[in-house]
Write a structure and sequence with these properties.
Length: 395
């Protein structure tokens, strides 16, 4: 029986408190965050069923916007519908938003954040260990011994490593493949026609909308809202997938920031907890202060909120149909494969020498051995190690 139809084992306030805590202490980026939600809400507390979690993960991968934030919104929706989705999403994003705004103020007033390089030297390596363990748990729980899902999982992992990006259309193809193989539709021709019409309708939408939005001459805040609205609407994949899009607009098109400022903004996102995409708050602050940060964050997250709550009722209503279940299984396998591949992609950037490799291996070993070890403690220890080791390596 669908867990969403039974009385919840938690109150809305408990979910809000959990999301506030995750937003304040959840390090590691989108891969780690979706892993924490599974561990805490599905395995440990059993507030959310495995099926509801899989549906949320599949929807988050299908829709544009940041992965972890959309999953958090969906999990809030499971038992408490739109109020739950709204409050869970706000609670998840607010702590990290306040942190990046504070860092933006410090960055603006004290001429940069050179200490970040030392901190990220250690934290970046530790994050790889955290993500690796999270990906392992997701793989064991969702893929199991299913040969078809393993094939999809491995393909997406390889594609992610080779392309160093998440190929969104492969998620959809994976879902359709499992659907057709395990629960073939009765009217393939009609379904194929509908899909073709939807593709023909949506394909030109992104460039046309992007061009139209780009022609509007407005105030700075309006420009920020339009640009970051496009970022939240048209970028698929994890929070990291938004970085190239932001660079093209913020640095190359609008010249709001220079290269060094943009790299520092990405570093801020990586060393603060919560969703990586919250770097938009830091960027917005550097452009136009607190108002810029607020507008940039709202413009980025409102589209992903809408893309989650609008289709959510249909996922809840039809999610147990064999065709939908097969489609979700395929999407989930593809998503977890991409997540696993991203561990290798990120490791190439964060593990740069022997000390960082040792930090990553130590984190894996500790999390493997001590199941209840809290990630914030690991991050704090890695930050101290970075502050100690980085000057020695770069003196």
């Amino acid at each position: 029986m669908n867990n969403a139809l039974t009385a919840p084992r938690y109150t809305l306030w408990q979910m809000i408190v959990y999301m506030l805590r995750l937003g304040a202490l959840g390090f590691g980026g989108p891969v780690a965050l979706v892993g924490y939600m599974h561990r805490d809400l599905v395995e440990d507390r059993q507030w959310i069923s495995q099926d509801d979690y899989k549906e949320g993960l599949a929807l988050a991968q299908m829709a544009p916007g940041p992965l972890a934030a959309q999953l958090g919104i969906y999990l809030g929706y499971v038992h408490y519908r739109i109020p739950g989705a709204t409050l869970a999403g706000l609670a998840f994003v607010l702590p990290s938003f306040l942190m990046v705004v504070a860092l933006g103020w410090a960055y603006s007033h004290f001429g940069g954040l050179p200490w970040m390089q030392a901190v990220f030297y250690g934290v970046g390596a530790a994050v790889i260990g955290i993500i690796a363990i999270s990906a392992k748990k997701l793989t064991e729980k969702s893929i199991r011994k299913d040969k078809l899902l393993w094939a999809i999982y491995l393909l997406l992992a390889i594609v992610t490593v080779v392309t160093e990006s998440e190929v969104a259309w492969l998620f959809i193809v994976s879902g359709i493949l499992v659907w057709f193989l395990r629960a073939p539709p009765k009217w393939l021709k009609r379904s194929g026609l509908n899909a073709a019409l939807a593709q023909a309708t949506m394909t030109p939408l992104t460039p046309l909308a992007g061009g139209w939005l780009g022609t509007i001459d407005a105030s700075m805040l309006a420009q920020i809202a339009l640009f970051f609205g496009k970022a939240g609407t048209f970028v698929f994949g994890s929070g990291l997938a938004i970085v190239p899009f932001l660079y093209g607009g913020v640095v190359q098109q609008h010249h709001w920031l220079n290269d060094k400022q943009f790299v520092d903004a990405v570093a801020v996102a990586m060393i603060t907890p919560g969703p990586v995409v919250i770097t938009v708050g830091f960027i917005g602050y550097l452009i136009a202060g607190l108002a810029g940060a607020t507008v940039a964050a709202l413009a980025t997250f409102i589209p992903c909120y809408l893309f989650t709550i609008i289709p959510a009722p249909y996922f809840k209503r039809y999610g147990r149909l064999p065709a939908v279940a097969a489609f979700v299984d395929g999407i989930t396998a593809a998503a977890i494969g991409a997540i696993t591949g991203s561990v290798i992609v990120l490791a190439r950037r964060s593990i740069v020498d022997i000390p960082t490799a040792l930090i990553a291996l130590a984190v894996v070993a500790m999390l493997w051995r001590f199941k209840k070890l809290q990630e914030p403690m690991v991050i704090a220890a890695a930050a101290l190690a970075g502050l100690a080791l980085y000057p020695l390596k770069h003196s």
